[in-house]
Amino acid sequence: MVDATFLALSVLTIGSAIAALELRSLIYGSIALMGALGGVAGFFLLLDSPFVAMFQIAVYVGSIAVLILFTVMLVRRELIFIKVEDPKRRYAGIGLMLVLMVGLGALIIDSGLKSVTTDEPPVDFRLIGEDFLTYYWPALVLMALILAGSVTGALVLARREDVADEQRAD
Amino acid sequence: MLQMSNELIDFFIVSIALLGIGIYGLSVKRNAIRMLFAVEIIINAANLNLVAFARFLPHSGGQTLALFSIAIAAAEVAVGLALIIVAYRMYKNVDIAEFRSLKG
Fold it and tell me: What pTM was computed for the model?
């Protein structure tokens, strides 16, 4: 059986995820996205992974959400509130979502994973640091290079001066 | 908390719900920033699965992989937002149906 904390966290996470996509204003949407990502951090705490939870809060709720908020503020005011969508496409999307959820849910409930619990103590997070520096060190270096490259690339892209001249003629 | 009262499958169900919401957002929304939100929600669903498996095995590999995944997602969002800003400056819009200079 689930406990009350789990229920509250799932309501917060799923509700905020829906709100992030459906709220009219993109600013409130990005704040709701922060709520959903914070809820996932709460799940990580429930799963006895405090290190991943702190990383999630630092990276997602701390930096990504702020980055998104600043991008939203750079966009024109009318575009923040506008919602263009095809109602037929919307119903198709809801149908796809329900089919996916029911299908995957039935698959998982039918599988042998049902009622798996554990009595074993959680993994010590010091092991993760050791893993990073011993077994995974090439991946760690590669990840650092990818991060540096992507941030440099993002800066170069966002600072391009010639973009405004390439507007469509029509 | 040594004794877990929650089962593995509970975390899965939350994860499936997040995945469904993310796919709905990706297929219905035309606003590029909202599509980025949907991608973030899907990545978080995957991370939740990784950490849940890591807890119930128990093995530290899942947590390590989740940390890598979070870091790569941060890089992806930085590049994605930069692309959205460039597209916005070109078309003065964030509607992906308006981005059509690659269209033949």
Answer: 0.89
Greatest CA span in chain A, whole angstroms?
66
Question: For residue B66, which residues of chain A lie inside 8 Å, CB to CB?
Answer: 49, 52
In one letter, which amino acid is A85? E
Looking up tokens 């916005």 gives: B88
Binary contact (B12, A117; C-beta < 8 A): no
- The single residue listed with the structure tokens 């993002």 is A154
Please give the Cα distance from B66 to A46 (Å, whole number): 15
**Contact list, B8 vs chain A (CB under 8 Å):** 113, 116-117
pLDDT tens profile B50-73: 999 988 888 888 899 999 999 999
Letter string b/e over residues B56-92, b meaning 16 or more CB atoms within 10 A of that residue's CB: bebebbbbbbbbbbbbebbbbbbbbbbbbbbbbbbbe
* A27 near B CB under 8 A: no
State which amino acid sits at residue A89. Answer: R
Q: Give the dihedral of Cα atoms B10, B19, B75, A62; nearest 10 deg.
A: -60
A16 contact B CB<8A? no
ipTM: 0.89
Say how far apart CA B88 and CA A74 lie, in whole Å: 9
